[in-house]
Design a protein that fits this description.
9 helices; 39% helix; 286 residues; eight-stranded parallel beta barrel; alpha/beta; two-stranded antiparallel sheet
Length: 286
């Protein structure tokens, strides 16, 4: 029986058996302009400490990113991205070798350096557009998250349009899975993410969340990141992303009950506690 027959996600030396409970990925933004926290973890020491705190709060994975992909964000030079994330990854590995690290990047050179420094997962918002990304992941036998994004962060929210957002996102992710496997990435190492808020308006996001069970038939783990997103603020009337805790937990619970294997969140402790109840009701927890 293969890992995927067992519904598992393989990330270098770690294998997550899926279905018993929803996994939690905690966010560590090593950027000065994060939409969610205003750059509070931009310094190395602060970021390393934050990663350790998220692990203590129950995060299964910490996702470290050095380039903001918020709507309207401009790209940063690759050297700057490297200088932000590699010292943090090394610091987390030194301080807490038990913490599983994901690198949030769309650049193959950054992914390769991060994997060399100790990351186990590549979280790519472009689903492998950069030449060499799939090879870097395959060579390291790392996990990989393929996300759907319409266009580029700088313009993705200008006027996103689809004929059928669910069908188009599903087909895009199917094609990227095939491309990754053709390039040598093991299917058991792959996960898909519908890209909530990445080139989608509020109705697009809601439609994708309602259709989450359809992503399970792609044969990969399903990851969703709705935490603190703008559409939650629009639904609740909350302008400050940091004040969208209740809405974020509601979204995470919905995702957990409707096919998500991993939720990417900012508020780890509260989400872990909420999902313990959600998973138990759904029959997947103890």
């Amino acid at each position: 029986m293969t890992c995927m027959d067992e519904r598992a996600w393989r990330c270098r030396g770690r294998t997550f058996v899926l279905g018993s409970r929803t996994l939690v990925m905690g966010v560590v933004n090593v950027t000065p302009d994060s939409f969610s926290d205003g750059g509070r973890s931009a310094e190395r020491e602060t970021a390393v400490a934050h990663a350790a705190t998220l692990a203590d709060e129950g995060a299964d994975i910490v996702d470290i990113g050095g380039e903001s992909t918020r709507p309207g964000a401009a790209p940063v030079p690759v050297d700057e991205e490297l200088s932000r994330v590699i010292p943090v990854i090394e610091g987390v590995r030194s301080a807490r070798s038990d913490v599983l690290i994901s690198i949030d990047t769309r650049r193959a050179v950054v992914a390769a350096a991060a994997l060399h420094a100790g990351a186990a997962i590549v979280n790519d918002v472009t689903a492998g557009r950069d030449e060499g990304m799939f090879r870097a992941v395959a060579d390291a036998q790392a996990g990989m998250i393929l996300m759907h994004m319409l266009g580029e962060p700088a313009t993705m929210q200008d006027d996103p349009r689809y004929d059928d957002v669910v069908a188009e996102v599903h087909e895009h992710l199917r094609e990227r899975l095939e491309a990754a496997i053709f390039a040598g990435v093991a299917q058991a190492c792959l996960a898909v993410d519908p890209g909530i808020g990445f080139g989608k308006d509020g109705e697009h996001n809601l439609a994708l969340l309602r259709a989450l069970p359809s992503l399970a038939n792609l044969g990969a783990a399903v990851v969703v990141g709705a935490s603190r997103k703008r559409f939650l603020g629009a639904l609740t009337g909350v302008d400050d992303p940091a004040d969208r805790l209740e809405a974020s937990i509601a979204a995470a619970a919905w995702c957990a009950a409707n096919g998500a294997d991993v939720v990417r969140v900012h508020d780890v402790r509260a989400t872990v506690r909420a999902l313990a109840v959600t998973d138990a009701i759904a029959g997947g927890g103890s």
